[in-house]
Amino acid sequence: MLSVIIPVLNAADRISVEIGRWLESSAADEVIVVDGGSDDGTPDLARLAGARVLTAPRGRGSQLAAGAGAATGDWLLFIHADTHLGPGWQTVTKRFMADPANRFRAAYFRFALDDQSSAARRLEKVVEWRCRYLGLPYGDQGLLIGADYYDKLGGYEAIPLMEDVALARKIPNHRLQALHADAVTSAVRYRHDGYVLRPARNLLCLALYFIGVPPVGLVELYEGRKR
Question: What is the pTM of this model?
Answer without folding.
Answer: 0.94
